Amino acid sequence: MTPVSTIVSFLALFLSLVTVSCDVIRLPSQASKFFHDGDNSSAGTKWAVLVAGSRGYWNYRHQADVCHAYQLLRKGGVKEENIVVFMFDDIAKNKENPRPGIIINSPNGDCKLWASDYTGDEVNVGNLFSVILGNKTALKGGSGKVVDSGPNDHIFIYYSDHGGPGVLGMPTSPSLYANDLNHVLKKKHASGTYKSLVFYLEACESGSIFEGLLPEGLNIYATTASNAEESSWGTYCPGEDTSVPSEYETCLGDLYSVAWMEDSDKHNLKTESLHQQYELVKKRTAATASSYGSHVMEFGDIGLSKEKLVLYFLAQTQTMKTPPLWMKIHSGHFQDLQTSYRKAPEGSTRKAQAQKQVLEAMSHRLHVDNSVLLTGKLLFGISEGPAVLNKVRPAGMPLVDDWDCLKTLVRAFEWHCGSLSQYGFKHMRSIANMCNAGIQMEQMEEAAMQACPTVPNSPWSSLHNGFSA
Ligand SMILES: *[C@@H]1O[C@H](CO)[C@@H](O)[C@H](O)[C@H]1NC(C)=O
Ligand SMILES: *[C@@H]1O[C@H](CO)[C@@H](O)[C@H](O)[C@H]1NC(C)=O
Fold first, then answer.
1. Which of 171, 251, 262, 433 is the 20 to 30 A CA-CA neighbour of 39?
2. Are the C-beta atoms of residues 156 and 47 closer than 8 Å to each other?
3. Domain locations in the chain as residue ranges
4. Do domains 22-331 and 350-462 have the same CATH topology?
5. Per-residue pLDDT tens for 162-185?
6. How many angstroms separate the alpha carbon of residue 103 from the centre of ligand 2?
7. Using a 6 Å cutoff on CB, does residue 43 contact ligand 1?
């Protein structure tokens, strides 16, 4: 190895050990008729909202998750007119996609592209909320499809993307904040337009989206890929899983998402309950001695989980095989860059480019970590700062009491220090703790200005676009 490549490898190893970069995952939303109503399964309509919150080829897995979920629901008999899909749609036709027009969510997978209802910049928080609330007049662009549900209907929402404490990514700015999402769910409940709603959410720190925020009594049952303080993980990743076809340089799926979908592909959904699926998914997603994992959580009306998974999913029961391996990696853009670097031929232009990208990504990470830490020290003192930033509130308490404060401080920080990017989502808790400690915008402005005297003209912005422009 050349000295530089040795340094790159060393730094990469170092960073992958010290910075648990979150494969922030999104919520998978699924068709609303996910379970049947006791003995009255014919009553009501099943609706689904499926959201891939990312863009970019290195985030292949999120759109692959959503493609798989769409197929699963369609095969199960949920009508196309009742499934609303949010997908940036830059994967299937991406020039890096080794199989044009096809997205795979497992080594043997095969998911054909279909028309997404909301693509590109139409994948945004405003449209997502309008779709859930069934408000056509508030939509901006897209197919115009909304969850036009009635009181007997069942709604399934699945989201997959990167996240951080209290926040979920979207391919466009702004990000989706936990309090706003819960507010919309409460509003939907108040409108009396569903019987029950199931929310499956894949993202890092996804437990923080509902913890202390989603009350009982809304007829909502939610499960999340991870608890409020940990990463969720990608799966079927090149270099880690030998079954992944060699032409792929990106992870094909996310661990929790693939777990619930492959379970749905495999089991008799007429007899399997949401609770049984929760237990199976929890087991498969958990860390083992040899692999990464996370704690799958459940929130809301847990009692709903005794309902059965929809019988419509039965059709493909016999044909699906369980994939051989469960190797998992803490995936993300950074891992993909490292894979590209490793795979590029020695001495090639491609190798040089990949090396440059790895170095830029590392430098971005160091900048983000250092500037958050320095801001904390400026606000709370050198010895107290880190303790305040790392504080975790007791279970059952939301991340922050004043969500507007969190949004304001994030904006102020980014104004001076540059975009947090999806990597920096993990610092949401630190910024939330600043709010909980009573820090005001002016104090944040001052501290961030000192921490970041020059605005970084981020060379990494092209790598980390989509979050906080
Ligand atoms: C089943 O659904 C029908 C139509 O909505 C309704 O009239 C009936 O009361 C329901 N039966 C039960 C047992 O819930
Ligand atoms: C739908 O959205 C529009 C525009 O934001 C708003 O004025 C209207 O009140 C909304 N309708 C409902 C029923 O919430």
1. 262
2. yes
3. 22-331, 350-462
4. no
5. 999 999 999 988 999 999 999 999
6. 36
7. yes
> Up-side HSE of residue 345: CA atoms within 13 Å toward CB?
3
Using a 6 Å cutoff on CB, does residue 143 contact ligand 1? Answer: no
Per DSSP bridges, beta strands 308-309 and 35-36 are antiparallel
162 is catalytic: yes
8 A C-beta contact, residue 236 and residue 252: yes
Select from 219, 263, 319 the least CA-distant residue to 69: 263
Four-way CATH pick for 350-462: 3.40.50.620, 3.40.50.150, 1.10.600.10, 1.10.132.130: 1.10.132.130
Q: Which residue reads 């466009």 in tokens?
A: 172
Mean pLDDT computed over 433-461 = 81
pLDDT at position 5: 53
CATH class belonging to 22-331: alpha beta
Catalytic residue check, 204? yes
| pLDDT tens per residue, range 317-375 | 222 222 222 222 223 456 667 777 888 888 888 888 888 888 888 888 899 999 999 99
Residue identified by tokens 């990597």 is: 423
Residue 384, Cα to own-chain centre: how many angstroms? 32
Backbone angles phi, psi at 200, to 5 degrees: -105, 125
Would the pTM count as exceeding 0.70?
yes
465 has pLDDT over 80:
no
**Residue 53 · residue 169 · CB < 8 Å:** yes
The answer to whether 22 and 202 are in contact (CB under 8 A) is no
